[in-house]
Amino acid sequence: MSTRHPRQPAGLNRREFLQRSAGGAIALSAFAPLLAACGGADDNGGNGGNGGNGGGGDDGRPELQLARPDNPVEWPLFDDNPPIEPGLEPESGTLRIYNWNDYLWPRMLRRFEKEYGVTVELTTFSTADEATAKLTSGAVDFDVYFPTPDRLGRLVLGQILQPLNLDYIPNLQNAWPSLQDPFYDQGSRYTVPYTIYTTGIGYRADEIAEPPDAYGNPYDVYFDERNAGKMYLLDDSREAIAHMLLRAGVTDVNTEDPEAIEAAKQELISLIDLVNVKLSTNDYTYIPEGRATIHQAWSGSLISAPYYLPQGTGPEVLGFWFPQDGRGVIGNDSMAIPKSAQNPVLAHHFLNFLLDEQNGYDNFVNYVGYQPPFTSIDPDRLVTDEVVPPNLESVVVRESDFDVAGFLLELSPEGANTWQNAWAEFKAGV
User: pLDDT digits over 175-216, tens only?
Assistant: First the structure.
């Protein structure tokens, strides 16, 4: 994939956006080694023990906790996996980073290399499944990894990640208070935040029959036969099913109710014949290029999208719908350090480097298109400063949005199996 948007002239250093090729279903096979480390989670639905304190199963091992806003989790520490000591000098070796495709500005890596006198080696993945499988195999050693909260518990209990020493990460104070001490990782023991986003519906306003908000239920746009052949969902089991749940009025996007998941599956299956639904994670290019007139999309992808429009076409043809009441899907990506890191001190410095206000902002506006959750960023000024076109104001994420939107979170092994089976059955027919 090019390191520069095709519509941009060489040397342009502002908003060189590229979006990750994220997504992918939860592969239980990739989780197998981790589930074995989660004690009695299989027998107890993954929510046993002592609330958020990592209560143990019958064999004494901590059980998998399901972190929720009303059930915050402080993940346990392990004697054989301690945080690094304070006051150590960063290593001089090569920093090895494992991240989503196109989710770090290359110039940011060069900037870190120059500041620390080291080399940075970036390896990318396209799905969380791919990353989980590689990390749990023990065949690779990375210093920095970018996990999502929906599988954090398994990574912690499987001792794939090492606990952080926040003495090395003072820039965490630049993040929103709610993400300095998030409910899914109380005390930021294993992660610090990277970016934030919402999941809505992206579209080409000049090519669709009607925008989502013209329907009584905006999610009905997915079922409008006038958009047949150019209607896409994200190739992600959690995201696609979540929108079907919301369409049906199920606001708990982490429900493990088999009947609700079955109904969502049937709705997805109906789209195959009705509109010839397709799957992709190329929302940032498919929408502007007109390959998709409707595409379930991540908010950051629409910030990137203007740079893939045909020459002479302005950003006003793009649209992004997210519920006005905020009751949609929201999320954030995190940064962590694997237990096997060869340069853990340098890795801590890199996390702190990306949480620097200037570095994080530059990474956002010059490349990734996804907001860092910094208190210094005024969401309203993202439009007035022309980072976001006025017609795409709905892509901007505010801290208050996390109070009402649904956060895709970790499921119990039984629940994950229910979701995965539904997704597999639907995807087999697409």
Answer: 999 999 999 999 999 999 999 999 999 999 999 989 999 999
CATH code for position 235: 3.40.190.10
Note whether 201 and 190 are same-domain residues: no
For residue range 39-60, what is the model confidence (pLDDT) as tens digits? 433 333 333 333 334 445 555 6
Residues with Cβ within 8 Å of 170's Cβ and at least 6 positions away in sequence, in order, are 352
In a domain, 19, yes or no: no
Are residues 227 and 400 in contact, defined by beta-carbon separation less than 8 angstroms? no
Taking alpha carbons only, the member of 197, 182, 177, 104 closest to residue 145 is: 104
Lowest-confidence region among 27-31, 45-49, 139-143, 392-396: 45-49
* 108 and 90 part of one domain: yes
Q: What average pLDDT does this structure show over 160-181?
A: 97
Residue 17 lies in a domain: no
Q: Do residue 139 and residue 249 come from a single domain?
A: no
- d(CA 256, CA 418) in angstroms, rounded, equals 7
CA 29 to chain centre: 21
Whether 58 and 152 map to the same domain: the answer is yes
Give residue 32's domain range.
28-195+333-392
- Predicted pLDDT at 236: 87
Average pLDDT estimate for 266-283: 96
In DSSP notation, 24-85 reads: ----HHHHHHHHTTSTTHHHHTT--SSTTS--B-TTSPBPPP--BTTB---PPPBTTBPPPP
